[in-house]
Amino acid sequence: MSFFLSALGLMMVFEGIPYFCFPQKVKLIAEKLPEIPDSTLRIIGFFLMMMGLLVVYIGGTDHG
User: Fold this and answer.
1) CA-CA distance, 63 to 55, in Å (whole number)?
2) Cα angle: 52, vertex 10, 32; to 5 degrees
3) How many CB atoms lie within 10 A of CB 26?
4) Which helix (H) or strand (E) holds 3?
5) 37 — alpha (psi -120 to 50), left (phi > 0) or beta?
6) Which of 55, 43, 57 is nearest to 14 (CA)?
7) Sequence ranges of the domains in the chain
8) Contact indicator for 59, 53 with CB cutoff of 8 Å
9) Measured between alpha carbons, how far is 30 from 19 in angstroms, rounded to an integer?
10) pLDDT in tens, 21-62
11) What is d(CA 23, CA 45) in angstroms, rounded to the nearest whole number?
12) DSSP designation for 1
């Protein structure tokens, strides 16, 4: 449970960075979001999930 909470907290930190550093850009992207086709958003989401799984796998492997 501790690992899950740490991962959740780290995710929240990374998710918050754009809102803190570039709030105006986030607003512009949010305005354009409805124009992006669902298929494109699904591809982007799938790619991000696979990259996240890869990072978790690499981080969880024992290199020693």
Assistant:
1) 14
2) 65
3) 13
4) helix 2-21
5) beta
6) 55
7) 23-64
8) no
9) 11
10) 999 999 999 999 999 999 999 999 999 999 988 888 887 776
11) 22
12) -
pLDDT of the residue at 64: 58
Tokens of 7: 């991962």
Residues, the chain: 64
Q: Over 7-61, what HEC string results? A: HHHHHHHHHHHHHHHCHHHHHHHHHHHHHCCHHHHHHHHHHHHHHHHHHHHHHHC
Q: What is the pTM of this model?
A: 0.70
| Token code pair at residue 41 | 């958003």
